[in-house]
Amino acid sequence: MKSRFLFLLFAAWAAAAHSQMMRPPAFMGGIPGGAQFQAIQMQRHQARTLLYREALEELRKNPAAADVPECPPGKVPEGTLCLHRPQAAAPAAPAKAEAPAAAAPPQPAPAEVKDAAAEPAPAIASAPPPAAGRRIAVLFGNNDYKMPIPGLETPIADVAKTAEILKARFGFDARVLKNASKAQIVDALNRVAAEATPDDSVLLFYAGHGYLMDDTRMGFWIPVDASVKTAANWISNTDISKLLAAIRARQLILVSDSCFSGSLTREQKVVYSGKPRAEEVLRRRSVLVLSSGGDEPVSDEGKEGHSIFAYNLIKTLDSVNGTTPGYEVWRSVHGNVSKEYQQEPQYGAVVSAGHAEGGEYLFQPRQGSY
């Protein structure tokens, strides 16, 4: 009875908050049950759909309204918003001369997340992997949105703590951008594309608002300079895939903590057939996405000042010992998040950005890390 009362109270408050362009509060009286949680989250989605109605109507008339043009050949003028053209595909690293070339493992069939989570996670072979290049991480945390888009509380704290762990435990050159605009996000990813080599390992993390169109199923990031009246400053999944394709690093992963971020993982779910060897994995082009949820709104609430997804990602990364595939990181995060919330973190490969058969992202703690 009490939970029903709290649900009705929250629903009434959320409706009033939307009319006043206010951000809904954290859950009162603890986390509600599954059905109530889904109802609250869908109500939030409906409120955001109403909020974005003009921008969405623009996208229905012109699906390319948010698209960023490709950069022209030659030197690009300072301040030009454009996408770097994908460079030559990252070549596979040559196998050792004395060892026969290993056959690529068969392509696994797509699997639902719950099925994949039930599978035992394979261990990466313990032999030392080939020498890698630099480790580069770029993390975007967006809290401060322009009214009437409601602000968020945890993204900056989420990316700052993740960057701290990536530096200390994994040796990343971690760059944090707070309250990034569309131009700042595109420019930062273009810079990574310009400097990364095939031997580098690149991790990208976006935490902020996102949206999925119900009719076209196209997903978007919503940067801090986004508007509810036009989609011009939104970033589409199509452009995100192009930005990933332009980064030549064979080891590339995108972590996305936003509503409907699972739309980025649709191309190919990651499951395993046999036990991958680190030496072979690192010779392949790997483009993976770890998202905070599927095709549903994700929780704004969390623990200890972090979103529920970021809290569990931070705990998982902080406990990694030895070379660990992204699949195992996802499986740990997925299990812990879904125990408490009606939220399903996803893990998938972006084939359109050059992901190769048998590819995987490897988290490798540096020697001497705590």
Describe what is shown at a glance:
The chain has 370 residues and is of the alpha/beta class.
**Largest β sheet strand count, sense and barrel closure:** 7 strands, mixed
CATH architecture of the largest domain: 3-Layer(aba) Sandwich
Low-confidence stretches: 1-30, 96-128
CATH domain topology of the largest domain: Rossmann fold
| Percentage of β-strand residues | 15-25%
Instruction: Indicate how many domains the architecture comprises.
Output: 2
What distance lies between the first and last C-alpha atoms, to the nearest angstrom?
A: 48 Å
Count all strands and give the number.
14
Number of helices: 10
User: Structural class given helices, strands, pairing?
Assistant: alpha/beta
What's the shape? Answer: globular
Helix content: 25-40%
The largest beta-sheet arranges its strands as: 2-1-3-7-9-13-8
CATH class of the largest domain: Alpha Beta
Overall average residue pLDDT: 79
Q: Using the CA coordinates, give the radius of gyration.
A: 21 Å
Helix and strand element order: HHHHEHEHEEEEHEEHEEEHEHEE
Question: Can you give a write-up of this model?
Answer:
The chain is of the alpha/beta class and 370 residues long. The protein has two domains: 2-23 and 30-51, no CATH class; 130-363, Rossmann fold (3-Layer(aba) Sandwich). 32% of the residues lie in helices and 15% in strands. The chain has ten helices and 14 strands. A seven-stranded mixed β-sheet has the order 2-1-3-7-9-13-8, with helices on both faces. A three-stranded antiparallel β-sheet has the order 4-5-6. Strand 4 and strand 5 form a beta hairpin. Helix 1 packs parallel to helix 2 (34-51) and helix 5 packs parallel to helix 9. The longest helix is centred in the first third of the chain and has 18 residues, at 2-19. It is globular and about 50 Å long.
